Automatic annotation (TrEMBL), chain A:
The keyword tRNA processing applies. InterPro entries: CMP_dCMP_dom, Cytidine_deaminase-like. CDD domains: nucleoside_deaminase. GO terms for biological process: tRNA processing. Belongs to the cytidine and deoxycytidylate deaminase family. ADAT3 subfamily. One of its GO terms (cellular component) is cytoplasm. The keyword tRNA processing applies. This is tRNA-specific adenosine deaminase 3. Residues 173-326 form the CMP/dCMP-type deaminase domain. GO terms for molecular function: tRNA-specific adenosine-34 deaminase activity.
From TrEMBL, chain B:
It holds the Pfam family dCMP_cyt_deam_1. This is tRNA-specific adenosine deaminase 2. GO terms for cellular component: cytoplasm; nucleus. Keywords: Hydrolase, Metal-binding, Zinc. One of its GO terms (molecular function) is tRNA-specific adenosine-34 deaminase activity. It is an enzyme of class 3 (hydrolase). One of its GO terms (biological process) is tRNA wobble adenosine to inosine editing. Residues 3-128 form the CMP/dCMP-type deaminase domain. Its EC number is 3.5.4.-.
Length: 342, 171
């Protein structure tokens, strides 16, 4: 673990060594932040519904059966139909309708009451507020149940991503090592703009391609990510850009051998991870969708970036490939690369 | 519809058909500068094993080459170009076109899967000052022909088969 401290700088929340049972010092390393769909960060949205108090509890099952039959809820299915009143624990309340129809009380409800004697065992409907959407996170669940009980199927993966407890120490070491590689390639640029990209095969922990940003050279589209994608193509027997630039002189020798014994061969960037010092722009983010990248780790955000700042292209509905995005990897170091430009 | 646009678009379809014959997604692209065709491109994703080699990106490479060969400032050339493409540029290409500052794009059909000029995201007009100026678009120029080509590709129909034997399914 010791060597981790060399690269972490401010990303170590504390460099103090807490003794574990093994007696070895351990470091608490801040994990990268997962960039998730907005739905996981949404605050509680409330909606009005009609509920009744059940006056005769012995009739509960009959009441529930009738109300569910006469007044099915096609929406708000996350809500439990019946709850015990939070103020009076022995009192039961039941949802009868969403507050859509204006004449619900005067028409639908009074018709039902006339025809079905069971309705004399419930109170007149009144309005309460409930969570409009099913909760997706523990936090959202805790907020929602303040209003009305609801079901919650916890996605353990999302929980670990939100808690920043997704990676183990070994993985964190790899993540930092690869970002350091991206930082070093960024610095190798002959241009003022210092951005570096590294594409890695995480299964074998090998670097497939790496490039600094060449957009300030002859080709305005040769962003670090675009060049790295083309290098992956070159490794796979394709590729288009002949890079004569000084900045890329040492690139080919790093472009690694394709894994032997893989009969089908690699397909684009399937299964690969990208490490890039700055948040990708919309062009590069979409290039990564087309290239089927698996995960993207970036250092510093950019106000017009497409993976968390201006857009979240990696979770954009309607697009046929999605990838995981983590930000804030060695962020201070990556940010410094950009601010070094004078 | 402007006759000039139709004429250039006809030529752009030749490139899309060339892509189809090569087993690529049939999209063709052409750049007009000073009233002349200076660069063409068609999809070459499979050939190059690079999923970013869309017709527009290929054509941009060729404009850079053209500018170099003719000792012109490529930035100035791009700013006076009109780009014709059979299908709405994807999100990536819309970003690329803004970066090289192409002012006007004329395209055939919408791109419901990846469209960057409104279909999925409006990259052409979004507030992205560091990317480049916004992109003006004229859509629906010979759209039916572009759609038919894409349908032919996705159904794996053989374009070389006689017309009456080709399966034509309407959606």
């Amino acid at each position: 673990m010791e060597d981790v401290s060399n690269c972490c700088g401010n990303d170590l929340t504390s460099s103090c060594s807490k003794k574990q049972f093994t007696g070895e010092p351990t470091l608490i390393i801040k994990q990268p932040e997962a960039v998730l769909d907005e739905v996981y960060y949404c605050s509680l949205e409330l909606v009005d519904i009609f509920v009744c108090t059940i006056k005769d509890k012995k009739k509960t099952s009959e009441i529930v059966k009738n109300i569910c039959k006469h007044l099915p809820l096609d929406k708000l299915t996350h809500l439990k139909r019946v709850r015990s009143n939070t103020n009076q624990a022995d009192e039961l309340q039941i949802i009868v309708a969403m507050n859509y129809e204006e004449d619900f009380l005067t028409k639908t409800w009074s018709d039902l009451c006339e025809k079905n004697p069971v309705y004399c065992h419930v109170s007149k409907p009144f309005m309460v507020k409930v969570s409009k959407l099913p909760p997706l996170t523990r936090q959202q669940y805790n907020n929602a149940v303040q209003y009305w009980p609801c079901s919650f199927h916890e996605d353990k993966r999302i929980t670990r991503l939100l808690n920043r407890s997704f990676f183990n120490a070994e993985e964190m070491k790899c993540i930092h090592k690869n970002m350091e590689e991206a930082i070093s390639v960024a610095k190798s640029s002959v241009y003022k703009l210092h951005i570096g990209a590294v594409i890695v095969d995480p299964k074998s922990d090998t670097i497939i391609a790496k490039s600094c940003d060449l957009r300030q050279g002859k080709h305005p589209l040769q962003h670090a990510v675009m060049v790295a994608i083309d290098q992956v193509a070159t490794v796979q027997g394709g590729g288009m850009w002949q890079l004569s630039d000084k900045s890329s002189n040492n690139l080919q020798k790093h472009s690694c051998r394709i894994e032997k014994g893989d009969k089908t061969g690699p397909y684009l960037c399937t299964g690969y991870d990208l490490y890039v010092t700055a948040e990708p722009c919309i062009m590069c983010a979409m290039a990564l969708v087309h290239s089927r990248i698996s995960r993207v780790f970036y250092g510093s955000p950019h106000p017009e970036g497409a993976l968390g700042s201006k857009y979240k292209l990696h979770v954009q509905p309607g697009i046929n490939h999605h990838y995981d995005v983590f930000c804030g990897v060695l962020q201070d170091h990556c940010h410094k690369l950009m601010s070094d430009i004078t | 519809m402007d006759n000039e646009h139709i004429t250039w678009m006809e030529r752009t379809f030749d490139l899309a058909e060339e892509a189809l014959k090569s087993g690529e997604v049939p999209v063709g692209c052409l750049l007009v500068y000073d009233g002349k065709e200076i660069a063409v491109g068609r999809n070459e994703v499979n050939e190059t094993k690079n999923a970013t080699r869309h017709a527009e990106i290929v054509a941009i490479d060729k404009v850079l080459k053209f500018s170099e060969e003719n000792k012109l400032d490529s930035k100035a050339v791009f700013r006076q170009c009109v780009l014709y493409v059979t299908v709405e540029p994807c999100i990536m290409c819309a970003g690329a076109l803004r970066q090289v500052e192409i002012p006007l794009v004329i395209y055939g059909c919408a791109n419901d899967r990846f469209g960057g000029c409104g279909s999925i995201l409006p990259v052409h007009s979004a507030e992205l000052p560091s990317l480049g100026p916004s992109l003006q678009c004229i859509s629906n120029v010979m759209a039916e022909r572009a759609i038919q080509l894409l349908k032919d590709f996705y159904k794996g129909e053989n374009l070389n088969a006689p017309e009456n034997k080709r399966k034509v399914k309407n959606t």
